[in-house]
Design a protein that fits this description.
alpha+beta; Phosphatase 2c, domain 1; seven-stranded antiparallel β-sheet; 14 strands
Length: 348
């Protein structure tokens, strides 16, 4: 694989747009910003077995473990996109505090009343808490997304993340779950645009042709110092505060959500991951693996996810490792209904 270090960046055309929250919300940072490498500690302990969220995708495979969220995997090939996810506890931590989920109906997308939703979360909080936080957040967000009234996708995504925040915060009132929280990165598609909602230091990358760009900004103390120009990327990689997360889902009654809007093209591939991957797998590695899709070594998006996971595990990732890969296979809008809704709104 590439010798490029985690945190290195290439650029792509059609830069993403960061949309600020409503008045009183956070200031957001630009996509593609250099972010520090380095693990964020999570608890080595867990509790009851967990299975994957069961949205409408065909036959996801869940290999439940005795504790934590176990091993998760799933994939689907739809008319205009393909996706695959995999989550592993890893060799260092016996319990998986990551969780991932997908809402992507298998019926033709011209019948969808909302776009798909892909989510990765990395829980914090120690024994019987981290894995609960991540799963609670993912399930609450998917439920809010599927049952909410269809509306502007960026607003619906922000609302789903706020619903996840309330669910985790309320669950943390229980004594054994006190202090738990989670990162949250969600991706939806709206016509010819991808929209990312983000809290924490899990990441979403866009791979376009031979370039990889980080769309999200890490919500960490080191990330803030790096964006302010107080330290260099080299200093950030080994900074003693690199493990300190500055924004999470569930730690407070309300949450500030970054919204990133990115124009899409046919062939775009989005790689969502927890820090267990990006801490040891650089952008050059991601570009190389994704660029091999369609070859005998990496024939599908499922193979992309598997290859990235195995690469992280062979490099002794110090944390749980989760990857969710989404590939757009058409130049037509996804979902098709997004175009019609936009037209109707303009005509009112």
């Amino acid at each position: 694989m590439s010798d490029e270090q985690p945190g290195d960046s290439d650029s792509v055309d059609d830069a993403a747009v960061i949309e600020p929250e409503e008045p009183g919300g956070p200031e957001t940072s630009s996509p593609g910003q250099e972010e520090p490498a380095g693990p964020r500690p999570t608890s080595p302990e867990g509790n009851e077995a967990a299975e994957a969220e069961a949205p409408p995708f065909p036959n996801p495979e869940t290999k439940a473990q005795p504790t934590g969220n176990g091993q998760l995997s799933g994939h689907a090939l739809l008319a205009k996109l393909a996706w695959a996810m995999r989550s592993e506890p890893g060799e260092v931590r016996p319990h998986n505090e990551d969780f991932a989920g997908v809402y992507a109906p298998t019926i033709p997308d011209d019948a969808w009343d909302r776009g798909p939703l892909f989510v990765v979360a990395d829980g914090l909080g120690g024994h019987a808490a981290g894995e609960v936080a991540s799963r609670t957040a993912v399930e609450a967000a998917l439920s809010a997304w599927k049952t909410g009234t269809p509306g502007a996708p960026h607003q619906a995504l922000r609302s789903a993340i706020r619903a996840a925040n309330v669910a985790v915060f309320d669950a943390a009132m229980q004594r054994r779950h006190r202090g738990m929280a989670t990162t949250f990165t969600g991706l939806t598609l709206a016509g010819r645009e991808a929209i990312v909602g983000h809290v924490g230091d899990s990441r979403c990358y866009l791979v376009r042709k031979d370039a990889t760009t980080q769309l999200t900004s890490d919500h960490s103390r080191v990330g803030e110092m790096l964006r302010a120009g107080l330290i260099t990327a080299e200093q950030a990689a080994n900074h003693p505060a690199r493990s300190m997360i500055s924004r999470t889902v569930g730690s407070e009654p309300s949450v500030q959500v970054d919204i990133v809007r990115q124009p899409t093209q046919a062939g775009d591939i989005f790689v969502m991951c927890s820090d267990g991957l990006w801490d040891v797998v650089g952008r050059g590695d991601i570009t190389e693996v994704v660029g091999s899709i369609g070859t005998p070594a990496v024939p599908t998006v499922t193979a992309v996810a598997d290859t990235l996971i195995e690469l992280a595990l062979t490099r002794n990732s110090p944390d749980n490792v989760t990857v969710l890969v989404v590939r757009i296979t058409t130049d037509r809008p996804v979902p098709a209904a997004s175009t019609r809704r936009s037209f109707l709104r303009r005509g009112r």
